[in-house]
Every structure is written in structure tokens, then in C-alpha cells.
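User: Predict the complex with guanosine-5'-monophosphate.
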Amino acid sequence: MKKLFVISGSSGVGKGTVIKEFLKKHPDFKLSVSCTTRTKREGEVHGVNYFFLTQEEFQNCIKNNEFLEWAEFSGNYYGTKKSFVEQCLENGDNIILEIDTKGALNVKKLMPDAVLIFIMPPSFEELEKRLRGRHTETEEAIQKRLASIKLEMENSKQFEHEVVNDTVDNAVKQLEMILLAGA
Ligand code: 5GP
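Assistant: Here is the predicted structure with guanosine-5'-monophosphate placed in the model:
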């Protein structure tokens, strides 16, 4: 029985790196590519990191009922396409969705067998340091992201698992224990 795993974590917690390292070792897991209206960061590629849509394109996908879930996060829209998840389940792949906690809880309502995992920073100070160290956001965007952390932590109380990202190696090991046991 193949499984759907949902991984959330605050901005700057390093979940992207942890998931990337996990996927290198476990190619039988597929990562969903979400749609977003946010601007592309340097180095990001359309169709690889995200499908970068205009507001209008995103609204059309909502209207046409193409999303399994979608949410507004920090002033931008993000959504997971139903077609991707259905295709993976048909192909017999394990799927990972890397989405925010609101989206994760919505997926759980629709698919109760989904396993929710929250990646925690070692501390709030460390998280702020990492967020600023990326140099990818304006001060205003950083403030918005810091403000969303409280809500993310609150929502994460409903998650089944918590992984602390103190080092990438440790976090990948913790993730392996959860994902390989659940798949
Ligand atoms: P970022 O802009 O840093 O790439 O992502 C911001 C937040 O949006 C992260 O918490 C990320 O997990 C979340 N996110 C990315 N894709 C989706 C999606 O398809 N749906 C939802 N609900 N959140 C998403």
C-alpha cells in the first residue's frame, strides 16, 4: 500500500534540504511540484521547484477544481494539483507533499491515511538567523514569515510526527525512520 506523506515546517527551517537528501537515497518517493503565484527566486526553475503561475492562472485552477488543496501563505497563493497526486497513486509511488500546515490539515481531512510530519528548528533564534542568511527575501517578507511561525507551530500540534533539524544528517535519519516505516 503506497502512502502520502505531508511535510511542513517554518520558513528557513531547512525542510527543502532535508527532503532533497532523503530523495537522493530513496528515489521510490516522489515529491509533488506545487503551483505558486510568488516570484521566482534566483536559481529556481519552472516545473522543477514550482509551477510559477499568474494570479489569473491560479484563480482559474481554483475555479476548475484542479487543486487537491491550496492556501494563501505570506501574501502569495500555493496549491497542490490533484492530477499529480492521482497519477502517483495510480503508478504505485509514495508521495511527499511539502506544504504549509494549513494545507497539510486540509489534506488530512480529505485523505485521513496521510501521514503528517512537522520539521522543527533547533530554536527560534536559529530559525531567524537562517531566514535572514538566505538573503532571498525583503525585510517585509521576512517579518511576514516570522509572524506565520507561531500559527505553524500551533497547527503542528495536530501532526503525527516531529523531526528536529539540528543537523541535516540527523533530520534525514529521523525522516527515514518515519517514512520507511509508514510506506
Ligand atoms: P516558499 O515560498 O518558501 O517556497 O514556501 C512558503 C510556504 O508555502 C512553505 O511553508 C511551503 O511548504 C508552502 N507551500 C509550498 N507549496 C505549497 C502548496 O502546494 N500548498 C500549500 N498549502 N503550501 C505550500
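The mean pLDDT is 91.
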